[in-house]
Amino acid sequence: MLVDLTHVFRENMPGFRLRNESGELVEFSARIRPFLTHAQSAPNYDNKASFEISEVQFQTSIGTYMDSPRHRFPDKGDIATLALPRLVLEGVVIDARHAEPSQGLTLADVTLPETLKGKAVLVNFGWDRFWGQDTYYQVPYLARDVLERLRAEGIGLFGVDTINADCITDPERPAHSWLLADDILIVENLTGLHLLHGRSFRFFSIPIPIEGAVAFPVRAFAELRES
User: Fold this and answer.
1) Are 208 and 194 part of one and the same domain?
2) Which residue range(s) make up the domain with 22?
3) Among 138, 140, 137, 161, which residue's Cα sits nearest to residue 65?
4) Which domain CATH number covers 161?
5) Are residue 25 and residue 126 in the same domain, yes or no?
6) One domain, residues 84 and 141
7) pLDDT in tens, the chain (227 residues)
8) Is the full-model pTM beyond 0.85?
């Protein structure tokens, strides 16, 4: 059984927010338009067939997306360097659904699975329920002691159902800085992680191998094993 963990990529979906030069908070999103419509293309085929071609404009850190190590470190690999075995991993879920807005959860607040090495560790804050709301930007996160444990255990990928794997007020950005330094990939804006609790699964997160992109949207899904 396959479980889709990806938000639908659509026009004006929730995106990241940055302050411009005047200090105004700007939210970025996607623009999706027909580049060529059926009506425009039909004369090319003597009106016996027609085709539509879409044009999509977006920043790569949007939707359900993956950060490559180059997102944080300019001398490391980009999205195109990621071999498929790095994108298909045994997965485990951390239950963090008790988190409050902007709360950092420590080792005392979460129960970690026994085996973490090489696995995709997905944190279920349940924050996808706030998708499209202001609360979505009040990001809960795992505190430094949890991140240190995950790094020490040698996980293969870190995924969250929030817009940022880090505390957004922490300029060091330890999740990105520590994990990407060890080539541990990060996937943000997941959804539906509650469906994976108590299940054995493989996690897939597949971007197209686009050279020069430091992040890119993925189709993320889990392949559940029979109980």
Assistant:
1) yes
2) 17-57
3) 161
4) 3.50.30.50
5) no
6) yes
7) 999 999 999 999 999 999 998 889 899 999 999 999 999 999 999 999 999 999 999 999 999 999 999 999 999 999 999 999 999 999 999 999 999 999 999 999 999 999 999 999 999 999 999 999 999 999 999 999 999 999 999 999 999 999 999 999 999 999 999 999 999 999 999 999 999 999 999 999 999 999 999 999 999 999 999 86
8) yes
CA 144 – CA 44 distance, rounded (Å): 60
| Strand ranges inside 128-171, DSSP E | 141-142, 157-160
Q: What's the pLDDT tens digit per position in 150-192?
A: 999 999 999 999 999 999 999 999 999 999 999 999 999 999 9
Continuous H helices in the chain = 38-41, 144-153, 174, 180-181
Q: Are 80 and 133 part of one and the same domain?
A: yes
Nearest to 28 by CA among 44, 13, 16: 16
201 with 157, same domain: the answer is yes
Q: What one-character DSSP code corresponds to residue 193?
A: G
Question: Do residues 15 and 27 make contact, with C-beta atoms less than 8 angstroms apart?
Answer: yes
- Same domain for 74 and 38: no
Residue 196 is encoded by which pair of tokens?
């994976």
What's the rounded Cα separation, in Å, for the pair 227 and 224?
9
By DSSP bridging, strand 65-67 and strand 104-105 are: unpaired
Residue whose C-alpha is closest to residue 140's, from 163, 171, 174, 116: 163
CA distance linking residue 150 with residue 143, whole number of Å = 11
CB 139 within 8 A of CB 127: yes
Please tell me whether residues 22 and 124 are part of one structural domain: no
Structural domains in the chain (count): 2
